[in-house]
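note to self — DONT lose this again. spent like an hour looking for the file last time. sequence + predicted structure for the chain T wanted, 215 res
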Amino acid sequence: MSVHETRAQVTREKLLKAAIKLVNRDGMKQLTVRNICDEAGLSTGSFYNLFSGKEDLISYYLKYAFAPYRQKALEGSDEYGPIERVLLLYRAYVEYCMDMGLEFVSGLYASNHNPFFDFMHRDAEDDFIIVSVRSYLEEAIELGIVRNDVDLDEAMLRIAAASTGLLFYWCVFEGNIDIEYEVDEAIKTYLLSIAVDPNMKLNIEPLESKGCFLK
């Protein structure tokens, strides 16, 4: 990486950290280019050298911030079957959402620009998990674990809707839902419903419930 590229990456990181801090402190409505630059101690010129606007910054963040979580989910996943790997990936996804912060995720739901949830129109290279989940389900069908009459587009929609809907209620109830357990159970229940053997035993440590609503 050249000196110029290194400086650009450092600037991106400063802007990203400033944006996350700003949203978690003041809410998404305060996320403007001027406020981001003021928080980061940078000029707007520096911002527009790297991003076309705040939406571009958010897309950049969402695309790259998940990378270490994905990697964590993939490490050691070879010992599991395709259904278990779907669950591992979504566990990483929920952890990612929690680390981003309640205010940030709530703001994404309220934002007109919402690449976070619009998996239907996202390029494969910008995908968070859907491409991987599809490949896991295709593998599960080939192995005779999932029924071969399952519509994969419908399966993607149902899985995404389960996680997105529960994350929405996590925001509505201000984080007082055991989101890790609830998403895991919802996706597990759906996956077993499309399995050849709906009573199959999964080779993955189950999450323990802390109670639907956390006090």
